[in-house]
C-alpha cells in the first residue's frame, strides 16, 4: 500500500529542475575524494544537475556561489530546489579556502535567500557543511535512567527573507568534524547512505542520520569520540527527494 501523495500546500513541488553545487577543498583533507564520489552518486540517484569544484580559494567560494545564483536566475525552466555542499577546514562561521584565507559562511548563505535569488524564492535551499566548527572534542556521555503561537492571514502576499532554507552542519558549534583518510567523513557517508536508500521528508531522514552518527564509535589518537550533525531549518513545507 502506497502512502498518500502529500497535498501541495504541505510539500514542496519537486517537478522542476534540481540543482547542486559542491565546493570542496581537498588539499590536506585526506578522504575528501571518497566524499565527492559519494555525493556524485547521491545527486545522480536523486536526479540533480550537479557541479563540483575542487580546491577553491576563499574568494572562489564566494565567486562560485555567485555564479551559481546567477545561472539559476537566468534559467527559463522552473527550478524546484538547490543543494550547496561546502567542504573544507573551518572554524565557527568560517571556511578556509585552498589559499588558507577565510570566507564567512553567512556571506555564502545569503546569496540564495529569498531576496537575492528570485528563482529560488519560496523554494527549498539546502546547505550541507562538512567542516570543523571549533577545537572541542566530545568523549560522549553515559545515558541514565511548545506551545506554538500561530498567526493566520487570508492571503499573505509576502514571504520572510530567510525561509525555505535548511542548514546541515557536520558537527555542533565549537566542535571538530571527523574524516577518515580513506573512507571519507562519517557525516557525508552516512548522509548519502540515508538519502539514497530511505524515503520520507528530509527532516525525518536527517533524524536517521543523527541517530546513526550518535551510535557510531569514532576513535581519534586512541581515544573514543562522539560527533553528531546539527540541523537548522526554516522550511515551511515537507521536502521529499525520492
From TrEMBL:
Segments forming domain Caspase family p10: 155-242
Source organism superkingdom: Eukaryota
Pfam families named among the record's database cross-references: Peptidase_C14
Gene3D superfamilies: 3.40.50.1460
Domain Caspase family p20 stretches: 29-136
InterPro entries per the UniProt record, alphabetical: Caspase-like_dom_sf, Caspase_cys_AS, Pept_C14, Pept_C14_caspase, Pept_C14_p10, Pept_C14_p20, Pept_C14A
UniProt xrefs under PANTHER family: CASPASE, CASPASE-14
Family: Belongs to the peptidase C14A family.
Protein name: Caspase-14
Organism name: Galeopterus variegatus (Malayan flying lemur)
Name of the gene encoding the protein in the UniProt record: CASP14
